[in-house]
Amino acid sequence: MKHENLSVKGMTCASCVASVEKATAKLDGITNVNVNLTTEKLTFDYDMDKVSIEDVKKAVKAVGYEVLTETETADEHQLRKEQENITYF
Ligand SMILES: [Cu+2]
């Protein structure tokens, strides 16, 4: 089992947390799912033979939330979004 921790954007209340938790936990090979609303972190253990990080990201996106890449911090993400907005306008 490998431990992973992803940043999830867009959660605003306990029911968002429950949705993300449920979407992640239902995947085969995932255990010990924990979602923290304050830090916007999704942590879990996973069996690499059964499931990939991409699967988890897809599942979270499918219920309406955004997952940041492991290498990108929330601050970098925010910065990138701002830069994209500047370019757009
Ligand atoms: Cu909510």
UniProtKB/TrEMBL annotation:
PANTHER family given in the database record: P-TYPE CATION-TRANSPORTING ATPASE (PTHR46594:SF4)
Residue ranges constituting the HMA domain according to the UniProt record: 2-68
Pfam families hit by this protein: HMA
Keywords per UniProt: Metal-binding
GO molecular function: copper ion binding
Gene3D superfamilies: 3.30.70.100
Species name: Acholeplasma laidlawii
NCBIfam families: copper ion binding protein (TIGR00003)
InterPro entries the record matches: HMA_Cu_ion-bd, HMA_dom, HMA_dom_sf
Name of the featured protein: Copper chaperone CopZ
Leader peptide range in chain numbering: none
Taxonomy, superkingdom: Bacteria
The keyword Ligase is annotated on this UniProt entry: no
This protein's record includes keyword Lyase: no
